[in-house]
């Protein structure tokens, strides 16, 4: 080992410490009861072990509304994420592998729309949705999540780089139709890119706060971030009942972050490769 | 015209027909996206533009107002205050994030082994955590009633600054945002660094370049397009700042006012006061500022190559 790497490794350790502190704190705090949480000492170390009890409280509080929010989050993330991926992969492939009139202006429009502040769209989308009676339904959250100009851009770059034209022509000469060529020949080659886009769009939908916050008013439709945001408001406005609610918020946060961390860890070889292509262009 | 003629000419039928079929197929592949694009981007955008040109009064009903809402917005102290805050915040947070991401990526590109692999995942980890929860966790850490910062300070017999107070919330948020996004940017830069042909470094080393020179004279310029991409993304994101202050608001003892950022202001106008017309004008004005800042930035960095070339 060369000596200059010692400094680099110390730097890495410091960075790890910084990025892990909040998660470590969350893990430790999830095992404490209200008393331990407010005891005023040792916030970063264990004090009793009440994780199981906290989880039971979490899942039963207010007729199990947390479980409902968890289910909603999974539904929105899967429906929005998978839908967005299918649409973006088709479009990216279409832009990369077909020349048709109007392709360049349309693509320029799509690329330019990356700059539109999404929040500028939430207010008019709300008004339009309420005109067709979709406000406060799951569609108000899922349908707008299907749009991701960045995913289309990423898939266009990826399709252009990973699918050779010669292979497509060969498939066509063999008599395969356009859709069959896409599914059988192009799609397997684009797999790392597809998984990257899938993961990114699931994360975006899972994390989305502003859109469901405005679109939904009945708490039984809330996804996790909006639900936990609601609990925070309740806990800080109500000091007496607040203490036990803080415990639920903390253990609820832990439960909410576990699924995505697991997904990222198990799929890392795919998304790391997929992001590489997107950033090289 | 020429095109229509060729398409109808029978002798060259097979080649031309496949070509024409391909043209249609191209449209079919992008059609689902186009429908979503029109329904949830173009239509709302045009509708917001339309809304922003009208005013709705209790007595007068809806009347055409021209650019009155925009004149009002740019003269509105609340909007100006929020805009100034996000511009100031961007000017500090974006360089900070990029420096953290770039340094981490350069180190990870150099060092190999278990620690490096572990660090790469840990630094990226916050990206997988919902922004709402990232903000909440830091809010807890800042908390005087059960956070460690206060406890450590007490142990040393000093008073810890409350990072969400009126005077400190800028720094409190700075930390939250840096923590949340630096890892994502690090991965993008890291991926770009991995894509560089390492024989270039060999050549530089033979020419007597030090590791530091290789990093700053070769690696950084070669990932400049990734840096520009990151800069544009974080600029667009930060100017629309909403979630973190909105979440930390209830525990920040009034530091987060309803006009804290332009987006929070637009949200309050629309959903608390039902002023959809004026709120649309605020959103549009913010969009205009985002567009302007990004455009200025892209012109300034054009020579170094960018997403749009």
Automatic annotation (TrEMBL), chain A:
PROSITE patterns: ABC_TM1. InterPro entries: MetI-like, MetI-like_sf. It comes from the Bacteria. It is a multi-pass membrane protein. Residues 70-267 form the ABC transmembrane type-1 domain. The keyword Transport applies. The chain crosses the membrane at residues 74-94, 106-126, 138-161, 244-267. Keywords: Cell membrane, Membrane, Transmembrane, Transmembrane helix, Transport. This is Carbohydrate ABC transporter permease. It comes from Paractinoplanes ovalisporus.
UniProtKB/TrEMBL annotation, chain B:
The chain crosses the membrane at residues 27-50, 83-108, 120-141, 169-193, 214-236, 278-300. Pfam families: BPD_transp_1. Residues 83-297 form the ABC transmembrane type-1 domain. Keywords: Cell membrane, Membrane, Transmembrane, Transmembrane helix, Transport. InterPro entries: MetI-like, MetI-like_sf, UgpAE/MalFG_permease. Coiled coil: none annotated. It is found in: Cell membrane. The keyword Secreted does not apply. The keyword NADP does not apply. PROSITE patterns: ABC_TM1 (PS50928). It is a multi-pass membrane protein. Belongs to the binding-protein-dependent transport system permease family. PANTHER family: BLL4140 PROTEIN (PTHR43227), DIACETYLCHITOBIOSE UPTAKE SYSTEM PERMEASE PROTEIN DASB (PTHR43227:SF8). This is Sugar ABC transporter permease. It comes from Paractinoplanes ovalisporus.
């Amino acid at each position: 080992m060369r000596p200059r790497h010692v400094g680099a490794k110390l730097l890495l350790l410091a960075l790890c410490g910084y990025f892990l502190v909040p998660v470590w704190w969350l893990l430790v705090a999830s095992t404490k009861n209200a008393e331990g949480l407010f005891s005023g000492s040792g916030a970063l170390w264990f004090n009793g072990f009440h994780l199981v009890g906290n989880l039971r409280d979490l899942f039963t509080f207010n007729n199990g509304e947390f479980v409902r929010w968890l289910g909603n989050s999974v539904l929105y993330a899967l429906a929005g994420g998978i839908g967005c991926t299918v649409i973006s992969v088709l479009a990216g492939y279409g832009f990369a592998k077909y020349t048709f009139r109007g392709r360049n202006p349309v693509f320029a429009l799509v690329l330019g729309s990356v700059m539109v502040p999404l929040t500028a769209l939430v207010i008019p989308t709300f008004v339009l949705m309420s005109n067709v009676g979709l406000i406060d339904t799951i569609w108000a959250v899922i349908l707008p999540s299907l749009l991701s100009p960045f995913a289309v851009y990423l898939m266009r770059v990826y399709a252009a780089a990973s699918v050779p034209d010669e292979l497509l022509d060969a498939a066509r000469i063999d008599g395969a139709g356009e859709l069959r060529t896409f599914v059988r020949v192009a799609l397997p080659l684009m797999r790392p890119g597809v998984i990257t886009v899938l993961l990114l769009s699931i994360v975006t939908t899972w994390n989305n706060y502003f859109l469901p916050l405005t679109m939904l008013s009945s708490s039984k439709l809330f996804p996790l971030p909006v639900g936990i945001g609601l609990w925070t408001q309740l806990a800080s406005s109500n000091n007496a009942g607040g203490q036990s609610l803080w415990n639920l918020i903390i253990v609820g946060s832990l439960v909410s972050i576990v699924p995505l961390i697991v997904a990222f860890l198990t799929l890392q070889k795919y998304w790391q490769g997929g992001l590489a292509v997107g950033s090289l262009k | 015209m020429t095109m229509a003629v060729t398409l109808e000419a029978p002798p060259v039928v097979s080649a031309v027909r496949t070509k024409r079929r391909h043209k249609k197929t191209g449209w079919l592949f992008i059609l689902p996206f186009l429908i979503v694009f029109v329904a949830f981007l173009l239509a709302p955008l045009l509708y917001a533009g339309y809304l922003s040109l009208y005013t709705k009064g209790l007595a007068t009903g809806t009347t055409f107002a021209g650019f009155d809402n925009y004149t009002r917005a740019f003269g509105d102290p609340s909007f100006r205050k929020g805009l100034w805050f996000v511009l100031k915040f961007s000017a500090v947070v974006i360089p900070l994030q990029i420096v953290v991401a770039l340094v981490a990526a350069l180190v990870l590109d150099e060092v190999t082994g278990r620690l490096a692999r572990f660090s790469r995942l840990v630094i990226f980890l916050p990206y997988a955590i919902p922004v709402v929860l990232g903000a909440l966790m830091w809010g807890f850490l800042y908390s005087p009633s059960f956070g460690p910062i206060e406890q450590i300070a007490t142990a040393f017999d000093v008073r810890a600054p409350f990072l969400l107070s009126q005077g400190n919330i800028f720094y409190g948020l700075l930390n939250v945002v840096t923590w949340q996004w630096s890892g994502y940017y690090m991965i993008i830069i890291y991926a770009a660094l991995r894509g560089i042909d390492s024989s270039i470094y060999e050549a530089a080393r033979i020419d007597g370049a030090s590791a530091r020179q290789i990093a700053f004279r070769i690696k950084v310029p070669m990932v400049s397009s990734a840096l520009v991409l990151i800069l544009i993304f974080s600029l667009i994101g930060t100017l629309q700042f909403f979630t973190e202050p909105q979440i930390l608001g209830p525990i920040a003892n009034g530091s987060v006012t309803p006009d804290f950022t332009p987006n929070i202001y637009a949200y309050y106008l629309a959903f608390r006061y039902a002023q959809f017309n004026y709120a649309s004008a605020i959103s549009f004005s913010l969009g205009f500022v985002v567009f302007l800042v990004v455009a200025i930035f892209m012109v300034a960095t054009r020579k170094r190559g960018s997403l749009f070339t």
